[in-house]
Design goal:
By secondary structure, this protein is of the alpha/beta class. It is built from three helices and four strands. Helices cover 30% and strands 14% of the residues. A four-stranded parallel β-sheet has the order 1-2-3-4. InterPro entries: Met_Synth_C/arc, UROD/MetE-like_sf.
Length: 132
Amino acid sequence: MHMDRWPNPDSPKFGTGYERLLPEVLDIKIKQYVVEYAAPGSGDPSKFLEHFDNTKEIGLGVIEVRNPRIEKPEEVVQRAERALKHLDPKRVWLNPDCGFAPGLYRKFERKIAFEKLSVMSQAAQILRKRYG
């Protein structure tokens, strides 16, 4: 299930994640939650994932799609490792935020998108070496 949000700095909920949907959202009979956590103000995935059991998977947003800045692989690794504190590495999938839809107001060149995806791939390789 893809859950998305727009972290608006003017919102009173800025800085919180999907944990405010608990516990009801965990009762949905699905295998994987796809959530964004790279964007500023998306909150800490630990607060959401600490409630998971080992039957669920997470598609963790680790690439910010509203900012053209290209992340470093280690930065993406650090984002992913927040989830790995709570879930078996085989249950964590790396994704860009928001299905990589930067939106009408935050467009950037396709070249940048490909570079960001390359960084995500490099981070996945690093994580596989660390965690198997």
